[in-house]
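Each letter names a residue; structure tokens follow underneath. Both lines appear below:
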Amino acid sequence: MRRGSIQQWHPEDVEFWERTGKATAHRNLWLSIFSEHIGFSIWSLWSVMVLFMGKDYHVDPAGKFFLVAMPTLVGSFVRIPYTFAVARFGGRTWTVVSAVLLLAPTLAAAVVMHPGTSYGTFLAVAALTGLGGGNFASSMTNINAFFPMRRKGWALGLNAGGGNVGVPVIQLVALAVISWAGAGHPRLVLAVYLPLIVVAAVCAALFMDNLAVTRNDTGAFKEILRERHTWLMSALYVGTFGSFIGFSFAFGLVLQNQFGRTPLQAAQLTFIGPLLGSLIRPVGGRLADRLGGARITFWNFGAMAAAAALVTYASSTRSLPVFLVGFVGLFVFAGLGNGSTYKMIPGIFDAKAQDRIAAGSTAEQAAAWSRRMTGAAIGVIGAVGALGGLLINLAFRESFLTAHSGTPAFVSFLAAYALCAALTWAVYLRRPVATLTAEAVPARV
């Protein structure tokens, strides 16, 4: 075996895992987290750039909501090709490429971030930061192949949570810049991230590995699109991750426009929710490993609906303390649900792989099929889920345009979470199950 290329990989073999696999998988996991972390920071760049855009930029609140929605739109679409890039080029190779690509939106923002730039130019550069959203899909697909089924919930939760922390971290960087230099120096934020992007690319090139088994997992896209669980899980992921990323991008704008916070006051609060939501994501994965992803996801959507009801009340009464409690609750439960829903994906296809063994496939063939389908599903579900962030910001934009308040948007979110809870119960909990994993999956699908 040479550095960077692994031909044989058998994580379900306990002896192999303890002897060789665990150390290699964890090394790739930590480096993947770092690279994905930077990707999330760049993806959410414009959620903090708008805090620097005062009246001299001539962009109204509706325009700012649309501006922060643009990266989520682009990021959702690039997640699909980023997923299959892992199969085409290898996880290590694509991690290097995807990190280097982040230089483009960061340098472009440094050029255009000043009064007098046209709104169309801001939109184009904001769209370019959508590349950072693709890093999540390729990273999750890559790490999924490194870990055994019994550890996937924890590993995927940790990988995603560490990446998600990139959102509050860039908000903290912006807070530091505004506090120290004022709201007239947005390029200082970019100066922090440019060298970090280079470090992420170099570390991936030197210390990560390509897995041959992953590079062989091609041709699954058409098959996964015909799988009904792809679309059911996409709907659930819209409710969890779509909420997390949408609220992360919009939180500061809501505080400014509904509660009259200044950019500095907003920056002092915006990082709290995304930080807690990111840190709790691995907990959602761990709980799903122990209790089943569907059970955790169902109760979590109930909690999100309760938090949305509290935020709706606070929004209508203009109570900032109650609003902050409810909104932070939404972040926490969205993060928990992110971990539990992503655990459900490999569990579903592992359970279906057992049916293939019963039908005559070998265990190795069934495992390869499950891995291929899971990798493809992660890309599609991640892409559709990210579109939820776009819907969140468009809902806020329309709500403030028509009602000059976020209350109508919060009512619609409450209804959506109730529907997601009902869907989880009807499909993944109501029917008797027959599966060898901890995951609740209908015996017939």
In short: Strands lie at 5-6, 210-211. Residues 363-403 form the longest helix (41 residues). The chain has one domain: 5-429. Residues 5-429 form a domain with the Growth Hormone; Chain: A; fold (CATH 1.20.1250.20).
